[in-house]
C-alpha cells in the first residue's frame, strides 16, 4: 500500500509497512513537472511485468520493486490489483510507477488536479 | 529507449472518440481501451500519459472532426429552421457527454466544451444576423431537442414559432 500526497511542487509516494522491504524503497519524490498523469487501472496487474531487479514478484500475491520491460524501468507496489493506480512519468529514473492506494479515484483526482 | 510505437495514433484517437461517446468516461476502462483500440498498455501510457490524457486528445479530435464542420455549415444556414435541422442532426455525442459528465469536474474539459458551444452560437448569430444571446438560446433549444430524442416533432413546432423571428430580424 502507498500513500500519495503533494508537497509543494513535488509528488510524494510513501510505501507503507513491510512492502517497503520488498519494494526496496520507502518513498519516492517526483517533481510535478515530470508527472504526466495518473490512471486507475486494475487490469494492469494481469499484464507481463518484465524482469525484476531488485524486488519481489509472487503472482497473485505481491508485485513490488523495480521491473524492466521493453527498455522501460517501472516501479511496482501492488498486492490488490483492484486498487492499482498508474502514474506516468517523464525524465525520471522510472518511466511509470504502479502502486496500490486506499482510494484509487481520489488519488487519481489528487494527482490530475495538481497537474492543471 | 522503449519499444517503438506500433500503432496508428490517429486511428486510435478516432476509435477512442467512439468508445468514450458510447460508454462515457467512467464507463471505459484501460482494459477496454487496450482491447478495443488494439494498443499495448505501455504504449498507451507512453503516448497519452493517462486515460484523461487520451480523453482530452479524443475530445479535441471530436471537436475538430465533428463540431467544426457543423459550425461551417451553420455559418451558411439561411434561416432558423435550417439551424435547427443542422444541430439536431449533427453527431454531438461526445460533446454532450463531456458537458454533463466531465465538464463539472474537469476545468480543461469545461473550457473545451464552452469554447465549442461558443463557436456554434457565433456561427448562428452571424448566419441569421441575430444577437449572440438569441443565438445561444437557439443553440440551447436545438441541443434540448436533440437530447429529448424527438427532433422532428418538437423541432417542427419550434420552427413554426421561429418563422416570425426570422422575418422580424431580417
From TrEMBL, chain A:
Gene source species: Kribbella italica
The protein's name: Bacterial Pleckstrin homology domain-containing protein
Top-level taxon in the UniProt lineage: Bacteria
From TrEMBL, chain B:
GO molecular function: DNA binding
Alphabetic keyword roster: DNA-binding, Transcription, Transcription regulation
The HTH tetR-type domain, residue ranges: 6-66
The keyword DNA-binding is assigned to this record: yes
DNA-binding region: 29-48
Xref: InterPro entries: Homeodomain-like_sf, HTH_TetR
Protein name per UniProt: TetR/AcrR family transcriptional repressor of nem operon
Taxonomy of the source species: Bacteria, Bacillati, Actinomycetota, Actinomycetes, Propionibacteriales
Amino acid at each position: 500500500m502507498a500513500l500519495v500526497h503533494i508537497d509543494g511542487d513535488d509528488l510524494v509516494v510513501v510505501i507503507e509497512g513491510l512492502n517497503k522491504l520488498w519494494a526496496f524503497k520507502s518513498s519516492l519524490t517526483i517533481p510535478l513537472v515530470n508527472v504526466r498523469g495518473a490512471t486507475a487501472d486494475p487490469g494492469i496487474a494481469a499484464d507481463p511485468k518484465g524482469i525484476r531487479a531488485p524486488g519481489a514478484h509472487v503472482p497473485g500475491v505481491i508485485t513490488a520493486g523495480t521491473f524492466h520491460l521493453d527498455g522501460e524501468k517501472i516501479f511496482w507496489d501492488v498486492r490488490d490489483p483492484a486498487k492499482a493506480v498508474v502514474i506516468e512519468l517523464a525524465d525520471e529514473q522510472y518511466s511509470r510507477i504502479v502502486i496500490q492506494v486506499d482510494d484509487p479515484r481520489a488519488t487519481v483526482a489528487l494527482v490530475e488536479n495538481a497537474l492543471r | 529507449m522503449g519499444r517503438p510505437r506500433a500503432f496508428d495514433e490517429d486511428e486510435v484517437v478516432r476509435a477512442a472518440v467512439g468508445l468514450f461517446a458510447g460508454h462515457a468516461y467512467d464507463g471505459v476502462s484501460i482494459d477496454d481501451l487496450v482491447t478495443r483500440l488494439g494498443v499495448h498498455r505501455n504504449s498507451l501510457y507512453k503516448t497519452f500519459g493517462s486515460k484523461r490524457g487520451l480523453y482530452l486528445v479524443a475530445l479535441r479530435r471530436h471537436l475538430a472532426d465533428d463540431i467544426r464542420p457543423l459550425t461551417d455549415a451553420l455559418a451558411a444556414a439561411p434561416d432558423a429552421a435550417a439551424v435547427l435541422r443542422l444541430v439536431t442532426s449533427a453527431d454531438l455525442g461526445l460533446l454532450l457527454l463531456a458537458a454533463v459528465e466531465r465538464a463539472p469536474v474537469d476545468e480543461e474539459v469545461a473550457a473545451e466544451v464552452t469554447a465549442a458551444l461558443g463557436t456554434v452560437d457565433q456561427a448562428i448569430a452571424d448566419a441569421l444576423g441575430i444577437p449572440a444571446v438569441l443565438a445561444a438560446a437557439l443553440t440551447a433549444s436545438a441541443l434540448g431537442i436533440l437530447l429529448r430524442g424527438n427532433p422532428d416533432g418538437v423541432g417542427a413546432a419550434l420552427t413554426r414559432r421561429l418563422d416570425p423571428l426570422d422575418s422580424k430580424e431580417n
